[in-house]
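note to self: dont lose this again. the chain is below, predicted strucutre after it. 171 aa total, dont forget to put it in the shared folder this time
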Amino acid sequence: MKKIINKNQAFGLIETIMASGIIVVVVGAMTLVSSIVLKSSRQTSEDLMANYLIHEVFESARQIRGTNYIDQDPETGWDNGLLLGYVKLIWEEVNDESGNVLFEKPEFELSSDLGEKLPKERGRGIEYNRKIKISKVSESNDKKKVEVVISWQGGKHRQSSIILTNYEQGF
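---
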């Protein structure tokens, strides 16, 4: 009687080792890609927050200038409240007769050239440092430059500036 040899047996040792190796390479590549995506996402989040903190200063300076135009007081200059030098941005509460907060208005207060450390809650867990400098651009006092530098952990920083002008001639 002849023995029948079945060639369709289970995986051999070599096939199992090769399949395991392929799985390890695929899982390792997916882990590497995931870590790169997470790092990139964190950096993007930090950059967006820094840009927000810069534009918060610019919009506050524009609001102060705009408020000077609409207050109808001839003694108020267009740049009243835009102090020259290093400043920090503060928010003053405006209340009604009952003491309820209606809104917060921005103001600049003189500060050191080291800037201000913003609370971690503002930076979503990251401590940002904001340095603001306001300077005259021309002797005619028609323009002021607002410079902002935001720095945070790892030596990262963002820097930007705008020029505010007196667009109401004769004001």
